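Second opinion, please. Pick holes in both lines of this record:
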Amino acid sequence: MKNILYSTCLLMMLVMSSACNKWLDLQPRDGITRQEFWKTKEDVLAAVSGCYTSLLAPPPGISDKSLLEYMFMYGELRADMIAAGPSITTEETDIINVNITQDNTTAKWAAFYRTINYCNTVLDFAPGVKATDPTFTDAALNGYVAEALTLRSLMYFYLLRTFRDVPLKLTATVKDTDLQDLPKTKQADILKQIVADLKKAEQGAVTTYGSTRFDKARVTKFTVNALLADVYLWMEDYPNCIAECNKIISSQRFALVGAGSGWYNNVFFKGSSIETIFEFDQSIENPFYNLLVNTRRRFIGSPFLSTEIFIPDDVDPDNNYDIRPGSYYNSAFTIQKYGTENPSYVKWQAYRYSDIMMMKAEALALTGGGAEALALVDELRLRRNAVNATKATVDPSETEALCDYILAERAREFAFEGKRWFDLLRHAKRNNYSRIDILLDLAAKTVSPTLQQSAITKFRDPNSHYLPIYQSELFTDPNLVQNPFYTK
């Protein structure tokens, strides 16, 4: 898979690159796609493989952070589990302090749209290959389409949770005449598109590729179910979230890895574990050594980890301890979840079975199923050897207290996996921002003291919960309008 992903990515990048300076700077030179590619089913596989590799690194000649780095920062930087490291940038400090302006380069979204365009290209051109390759079956085509739809949906789901309203491009940019200036599409409409696409993907996605590694590193029907559950949870559609989680649970293909010494090694370092639903196959080194480990690291673990998230056992901490913190960070708060080697190939876990359990628990808690929700939390805590110091006594009928408990357990389970800010925002915005206190408390805890009151005031405005559109996008696309909080 490494060689296939890397070599086909290079091919796809060469085919799909151009010098145009638009926000969708993605198109191949006119004519190449139709005339020299898209002839055989192997060409389609190469293009789909390129979609996956675009998740790991920018294409050759493109000076940008990897998409994986953006996913980490968008999900963690505004939350409470990472803090400034020795080489944090001024722009990143500004984001932590809710002091964000439209010239902050962290708000660049080009990496997401590159992957979106690769997916769009597969969706536009793969069906035509059936006319030139009689061995290309409908089942194979439908499987590739499902992969492209799911990866595109994942990209848009990150974008809409980060920027709220964004341009929705559903066709490929493959020649100069395909370039267009697009306005933003409302978040609610993008969510509807994602749901429709994922329902279509579910019909064509495979259950297995006949290889454990491929089953974890490529989209399967269960990847689609996991992403749909996440989307429904964001939409506050709890019955459908539960239904998607149940599809995965009832498949009996996934389980929690036990609390033995091999838990971290099996799930993260080796990957392809029974716990993993979808992971990024790190055929290219991940960006986290420079980001989190070396002496010039930009981020470290927050000091709140040891006092609020992973509280030590108050009876016998040397012999009774949660298995997670020791695998996630060290005593100096260096984040080691993605390895301490240089280079590192530790897997990025997009969805694990524990995520399905916690999403279902959250949806159950909000639909009168508190007792079942608590049972799911207890099951996870048992497998992780969670200590009594982090256990809460919660009445199953007390919805908000139960949701807070689930949110706290998600912090322990998914530390540094690019989920924390989205978890906090999802809980805060529920029922027309009935839990805005979550974000106000966050600002009081993480923002520099001199800027705390300003940050709290800003967070009272829901428009501040989304990043600005980067200024160069506004210059090149006159149909784009800046997000409202940043026009004041």
In short: Residues 1-33 have pLDDT under 50 and may be disordered.
